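Thread title: Can someone regenerate the structure for this chain?

I was given the following input by a collaborator and told the matching structure tokens would be attached. They weren't. Posting the sequence so someone can regenerate them.
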Amino acid sequence: MEKEFPRSLRKNMTDTERVLWQHLRNKQIENFKFRRQHPLGKFIVDFVCLEKCLIIEVDGGQHYEQREYDVARDQFLLSKGYRVMRFWNNEVLQETEAVLEEIRRLLLDDPSP
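Best answer:
Regenerated them for you:
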């Protein structure tokens, strides 16, 4: 995969991704490092904590229409040892603290692989 595509995604994040990134960047949650728009296999994930093999996806309305693709994608990522958390845009924007608490819980409760 070319490096330019993930780089362009990082430069053109959605407003919702920006909101979440402001809370994930610089090890703000329990000192865990997250990467954004990171390539894994043939996919690019929204956010990933490699240390805990935790992927966070922010889904807009288009994901409702591409559920089969998302299921296949998640199955591939799960087969590689990653856990995938999905949040709808409105959850991130309207319930930010609850989303962050759910992320924190998974980071702390689930042991590293």
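The mean pLDDT is 87.
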